[in-house]
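User: I'm writing a tutorial on reading structure tokens. Could you give me a worked example: one chain, its sequence, then its tokens, then a sentence or two explaining what the tokens reveal?
Assistant: Sure. Here is the example chain.
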Amino acid sequence: MKMKAAVLHEPKKLLIEEVEIPALRSDEVLVKIKATAICGTDLAFYLGKIPLKSYPQVLGHESVGIVEEVGADVNNFSKGDHVIVNPAYFCGYCFYCERKLWNCCENGGLLGRDRYGTFAEYVTVPKSSVIPLPEEISFEDGSTLQSLATVLRGWERIEGVRPPGKGDVVVVIGISTPGLLYTRLAVLSGATVFACGRRPWRLELAKQFGAIPVDLNDNNIVSMVKDSSNGRGADYVIEATGVAKTFQTGMDAARPGATILAFGIHGDMAGVSGYNLYFKELKIVGTRAMTNPGFERAIKLFQAGSFDLQALVTDRFSLDETKVNFDAMNEDPGAHNRMVCLI
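And here are its predicted structure tokens:
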């Protein structure tokens, strides 16, 4: 049985092809994809900046769909069920899974990197990677809940230190989709939130989400934060760009004892001074992927009306237009935000 898919043969060589649907194992679910989105990780795979397990590869991992078929050992899903796919699949029994660190599973991987992803008509995934999606939630919104689940994993890491709340100052640096979602979470916590970026339309969205927008082209966020906190600095900094320069800015804006979430995928951090770690006794936490409880929390937050996910979507396209949209995001990332493929 064949399906249409966007297949990457080498960096930037993405072709729409007919490929075999991966064989369905007894513990897996075959999902008919209805919506999937491009995120920064997908773009890095497309450009060859992050290595894939092998070529050719079907990209994509932020997706929702409808159950088409279930394996013999699957009894909690049936054909026709609406579902979200957790792309960070896990074994459930290794050292990390036993400690509920499913996102760090030593036998797991990521759809679109380690096995066929979701820029395709169908995908097969382990039954543990399938989360029920209430039918009143649209497929387009459902695909963005995946991004929210990733953000919530980072938010849980912050909450593990101390939950943000009223009286706290939170600085979010980088306000593409994840940064805007962090902005909204921080606003919901009751904190005063500074959302920092360079694109006017994203800054306007941050304002609509309840934050104080800061255009980094014209403003010094360190001075602004200190002026608003009796000279102390931010209680929390969420760095969502992965750029050394803005990470340093975040450290400069943080008060002694603050928590910094390193959400952006950080590569070469040359130029970042470590002195602040000592002098300010900063806590830097990392975050990776997402967990099933994060999806469940994301669904509840959306159902409560806490997030306007439609406001984040800038582009909608068909599977045949996948390469065009990858190239568009690469050429001008700031002109696009949430790019959703409706299949």
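What the tokens reveal: The chain has ten helices and 18 strands. Residues 4 and 18 are 5 Å apart (CA to CA).
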